[in-house]
Each structure stands twice: as C-alpha cells, then as structure tokens.
Specification:
Length: 345
C-alpha cells in the first residue's frame, strides 16, 4: 500500500493550555470536506476536552468519531489503549479520511510515533505530520507551559506516567519531533515576545522548521493537514532526550508467528494465552485457531493479559484447518522458545 492509500494521522502536541483543543475544534468545524476522527488524550481534567469536542461534532466528524483515552499519558499506554483505539476508528463505516490525535500535555511525541511502527497498523496508516503548539508568551519567558502549576497537577494525576521529565526537555522533544510549530496567543506575547519565542524554537529545532503564529486556533487547515511527512519513516531526523532509555521504546518490537494445532477447548486455550502474556510480558496476541468438532474459526485477540475470543466465520472448503497466532512483545523481553512452548503445550 502506498502512502497515498494509507490513512493519514496528524499528531498534535503541546503543553496543557497551549491551545490544542481550540485548534482541534477549529479543524472539526472546517474539515475541508474530509471525514475526520479525533483521539483525545487529556487526563486530570477527565472528560472536559472530549465533551468540548463532541459538542461541536458535525456530519463530517460525528460524535462517535471522537474517542477519549483518559487512562494516562498516551506514550505510556500505547499497547493497551492507543492501538485498539486506532483499530476501532479504522473499522468505522464510513471510514474516517483523516485522524487527529490530541496528545496530553506531557506526552513525549516520539514514543507515540514509534507506535505507528506496530506490525498491525504500519501498513495501513501514515503520520501525515506532527504539529507542536507552544504558548508564545510562556516560551519567551522560559516557562514553556502557560501554567506550570497546572502541568504539575496533571503529572500528579497520572499514576501511569513513567517519565519524570523537566518541562524544558518535554518542550525540546515536542519541537524536535515537529513538522511545523504553531505559536499560540501571540497577542499576549506582543511582537517582541513572539520574536523571542521564534528564536528559542528555531534554536531547539534539529532541522529548519516553519513557525506560524496562530490566534484563537484559527489556521488554514491546508497549512497543517496534508503535509505527507510520513514521519514514521524518518525517525532518526527527530531526536529525543529519551532515545534509547524510555521504558516503552516502541521501535523495538518483535513479532513471533506460531502455527497452533487444533484445540479442544476455546476457554482453556484463552487461559493458556493469558498465562503466557503475564509470564512473558506480551503486549499483543492476535490470530485464529481451529476447534475440534466446530465448523467455525476461533478468532483470538489479546491486549496484555486481557484475552477475547469468538467464532468469526466458517472455515472455507479449500482452507487447511490450521491455527496461527501472532505474538508481539518488546524486543528485550522476547523469549521465543518460551512463547512457542506456552502456545504448543
């Protein structure tokens, strides 16, 4: 599948209060005729952003296309929340033509980009661009976030957050991952503040970046959508303070394919997968199996140790009744022999 046929995703980063929700709302109301879907990952203030966005749903972006991930920082909950949510959006009918992801203020964008390397979705999705919003006045003052206390409160509220990153470093990571930077609230910063903020942003950027002033989230969607950056393909050009030592280095995935024999009991097979996922620290399991005496194929999906199984369709006459499971784990955790043994036991 070429990048042109893949579903484009725009990642919107920036601290709490930098204007992300205002921007997303503006895009929902002016979608350039595209069917949009939105994933919101703000927590602490649970539900507020999602409610704001759902209230402005329009036919091109109905409320069911607006999904919230409120279990914590998106870059730390990729396997559990993010991948299944993307898959749910892609299964909508009609399918969205563009997905916007509003990350939490503390999300490091790079681990999220690396999630697009997941075997399940890499072939179907392209990262159209990463937009970083920065409050011009806060950046000019060296505070980076307009309300540092609110950001600290957000950090306290997220039990799953596993990076105690100083604001300046999160800001630098957001800038270095970006394809375009929007400086918000330029009126509060004044011309001098805006000039200083631009200088700081460009000094942080690892490559030349467009920096655009935006008031009230008003920006021509053509400026920020349709960038065709294919960010998933040029990760090295987007350095991060956390390269190599973020707990969830999502580029280091290993997928193991195991052919499984006919099963006698679906529940026992699911229990076996659950135990393997716990013992081997497995992120995802997907696949199907044949069950003795059943004409239907058993479809199995696991996210971590949560296993779901159902019969999905009859085996076709020409098909071998051969089961196959794909197991995805982090590279360093993979014990291929133990995984095979657990499934074939």
């Amino acid at each position: 599948m070429s990048n042109l046929e893949k579903l484009p995703v725009t990642v919107i980063t920036g601290f709490l209060g930098s204007g992300k929700t205002t921007l997303v709302r503006s895009l929902i109301q002016n979608p350039q005729g595209k069917r949009l879907a939105v994933i919101v990952n703000e927590f602490g203030d649970v539900g507020v952003d999602g409610e704001i966005l759902k209230s402005c749903a329009i036919p091109d972006c109905p409320a069911e296309n607006i999904l919230e991930l409120a279990n914590g920082c998106i870059c730390c909950t990729v396997a559990d929340d993010f991948i299944p949510t993307i898959e749910a959006l892609m299964a909508l009918d009609p399918r969205p033509e563009h997905i916007l992801i509003e990350t939490s203020g503390l999300a490091l964008p790079k681990p999220l980009l690396k999630a697009f390397d997941w075997p399940d979705i890499r072939s179907k999705i392209t990262v159209d661009g990463v937009i970083a919003l920065a409050d011009a006045e806060a950046v000019a003052d060296g505070r980076f976030a307009p309300n540092v206390a609110a950001v600290d409160a957000q950090r306290e509220a997220d039990e799953g957050l596993d990076h105690e990153t100083p604001l300046s470093e999160v800001f630098e990571d957001q800038i270095s991952c970006a394809d375009i930077v929007l400086l918000t609230k330029p009126d509060l910063a004044g011309p001098e503040g805006v000039a200083k903020a631009k200088e700081i942003v460009l000094a942080e950027a690892p490559r030349p970046l467009p920096v655009v002033e935006v008031a009230e989230g008003e920006v021509d969607p053509r400026v920020i959508l349709g960038l065709e950056a294919a960010a998933e393909d040029d990760m090295d050009a987007r350095p991060s303070h956390h390269d190599g030592h973020h707990d969830h280095e999502h580029d280091d995935f290993e997928s193991i394919v195991v052919d499984v024999p006919e099963q006698s009991d679906p529940a026992a097979f699911a229990a076996k997968i659950e135990k393997m996922a716990k013992d081997q620290n497995i992120l995802r399991v997907k696949g199907y199996a044949a069950v003795a005496g059943k004409p239907m194929r058993l479809l199995v999906q696991a996210v971590g140790a949560r296993v779901r199984h159902q019969f999905d369709r009859p085996w076709k006459a020409e098909e071998a009744r051969q089961g196959r499971m794909v197991v995805i784990a982090e590279h360093d955790d993979v014990n291929v022999e133990a995984i095979r043994a657990a499934l074939l036991d």
